[in-house]
Amino acid sequence: MSPSLGPLTDGSRVAIIGGGPGGAGCALSLTQMARALHRQLHITIIEGKEFQGERHYNQCAGVLSPPLPTLLEQELGVAFPYDLKRTTIHSYILHTDRERIALQEKGEPSIALRRIQFDAYMLQQARERGIGVVSARAVDIEFHEDCVVIYTENAPVVCDVVVGAFGLDEGTAAIFTRQTGYRPPKHLDSIVTKYHPGMAAMEAFGPHIHAFLPAHTQIEFGAVTPKGNHLTINIAGEHVDISAMETFLASAPVQNVLPNLAAARKHNPNDLRFFKGKFPRTLAHRFYGDRYVMVGDSAGLVRAFKGKGVTSAVQTGIRAAKTMLEAGISARAFHEHYRRANRDIIHDLPYGRLMRRMTIIFARWGLLDPVIRAARSHPALQDALFGAVSGHTLYRDIMLQMLQPGMIAAVLRELPRHKPEALAD
Q1: What percent of the chain has pLDDT over 70?
Q2: pLDDT in tens, 10-68
Q3: Fewer CB within 10 Å: N-end or C-end of the chain?
């Protein structure tokens, strides 16, 4: 290994492509850790979006889960922005096409807010700590023996190592694909919309996220999330589109929880506009190498099937910073230290994929109905369902819980009441 690929030293230059939670979190972590080591780094974030003024819409549902507040305050020295909170989530209500169950939050609650406001806050925290921000998109990249050159819509940025925190942006991914062996993770599509049903309806709706596992062949899951003065609605699947969202909105279980929907479509032209996004469902290929490393969605380092994308982005940004400062910026350093640091996420991916396939099959044939019926009188099964829906628990642990003989027996007792139906259209 060349000495120049060792740990970052005083005066080292780091460029981060992407100013979202992963990029800002990595930059803030580098600053915090370098100060403790008495090193001065030159850090530049390259971000083409304007977070201030909410000029861009973020397709994330905007539910921030623990341990994110602890990560920000203890690892980054940044106060969690509780003033941005729209709703504190106290429970999840899980629906199939025929059954439903309320799953109560027992630990630290999740917080619903506007993601674009959170991103703006994080980037401002980076600026206040002397981290440079270039408001432009990266358009190309060159790797040299002693540096990396990133061409932007403005001036080029020269650095010793580049961090990819660009989510699933296809243009930036293509730049890395041309220059390295990187391939972005496979993904699910999502459709997101929102509407304002009125404050009386919002108060009646309550601090609950409604999660749906429909039998529809396109839709893997959907959710309705309260955000202070409005509801955010999202669906996800490999090929969801506007037609799938319209079908979801028209379904009886969803109609039963959406207040004043018909009036909103008539009277507010800014409501129920559809936005398309995506999020990873696999690990990226070669998400690190000499002088580069990916964090968060760009690496596919999110909790399988159920996201927690913001928390994972900050966690992996911190882990990348630690690797660069303590082990180095070579492919070997990232493999031996960064990959190992993320083994909690990586080792859970196969269990998440298995649970995803099982959930799809069970939902298509109505086999989740006996699971929900059994859970009403089985607290341990309720805990397992809550862990799966909220994203708080590793899927390995959830599957071990659900495969306990007592749980299996409880579900089997409900099967005689189940009448299989054909796949939904």
Answers
A1: 94
A2: 999 999 999 999 999 999 999 999 999 999 999 999 999 887 665 555 667 789 988 89
A3: C
342 close to 288: Cβ distance less than 8 angstroms:
no
CB 313 within 8 A of CB 166: no
pTM of the full structure: 0.93
Is the preceding peptide bond at 379 cis, omega within 30 degrees of 0?
Answer: no
What amino acid is encoded at 290 in this protein?
A: D
Bridge partners, residue 152, by sequence: 138
Q: What is the DSSP string of 236-278?
A: EETT--HHHHHHHHHSHHHHTT-TTHHHHHHH-TTSS--EEEE
Residue count of the chain: 425
Q: How far, in Å, CA of 100 to CA of 91, rounded?
A: 13
Delineate the domains of the chain, giving CATH numbers in brackets. 3-87+108-186+280-347 (3.50.50.60), 188-279 (3.30.70), 351-417 (no CATH)
Q: Are 84 and 124 in contact (CB under 8 A)?
A: no
324-346 pLDDT, tens digit per residue, is: 999 999 999 999 999 999 999 99
